Amino acid sequence: MTPEIIDKVARLSCFENPQDIVALGGGLTNVNLRVDDRGQQYVVRLGEDIAEHGVMRWNELALSRAASAAGFSPKVIHHEPGVLVLEFLNAQTFTEADVRNPDNLQRIVSMITHVHQDLAGHLSQPVLAFWPFQVNRSYAARLHADGSPHARALPAMLAQLDQLESAVGQIDMVIGHNDLLAANILDDGDKLWLIDWEYGGFNSPLFDLAGLASNNALSETQERAMLAQYFQSDPDQHWRAYSAMKCTSLMRETLWSMTSEIHSELDVDYDAYTSENMDRLTSALADFAQT
């Protein structure tokens, strides 16, 4: 929150008399603010394209509009380069513990199922694919070129990635959210909402399920119940491919954080986030080796 940011938000053409401009927490790649205007509240997301993360704001806008039309996300009020204005939801932001709550987890999996089934029908333009294996290879190449202090770990990670991609095998294609952190799930008391579509795009449904589990420390019992609910079948049929995608999701989050250590200017402890995700990845790879 700087005077320049406040002034920029106050001058947006969608507002008549903006008041009480306050920062919102949770953004790892954006500056997020809440604004009161004419008795209504709005969220302003400030963020340019992020080449090192493959974030293209036109893609985020297209998916945000489609998700709103499908009833999964708040309404898009205004956009311009580097700015996205959304309606503010009076809702609870989930924590990892909230996601692990059995009742909440069933609701979340139901929402993900409907997102995968319905969202593509509300798109009005092409959007990106998010193939996590290529995403991870791109991160590794950039980290090597940028002289990352983690460069020594990259060859082993890439070798593991080839094995994981082979284990995932043939996939179905859906529109995925691809960033299922707890903070991107909101509960207004009646329904769940899904926000932050900057990584959205075509992907395997396994990636959202694996990301939900890996980002929120689900137990194996919860993972198996999640797969049974989503696929309406025995989770053993999907377990090896799912386990491989879970490792891939954790590798992506680890590489994302390594990249952010170099490029991000936000006040976030990315070193600690890298270490946390590397520990989770090491554990998941050990479990995968037993499948």
UniProtKB/TrEMBL annotation:
GO terms for molecular function: kinase activity. This is Choline kinase. InterPro entries: Kinase-like_dom_sf (IPR011009). PANTHER family: CHOLINE/ETHANOALAMINE KINASE, ETHANOLAMINE KINASE. Keywords: Kinase, Transferase. Pfam families: Choline_kinase. The keyword Transferase applies. The lineage of its organism: Bacteria, Pseudomonadati, Pseudomonadota, Alphaproteobacteria, Rhodobacterales. Transmembrane segments: none annotated.
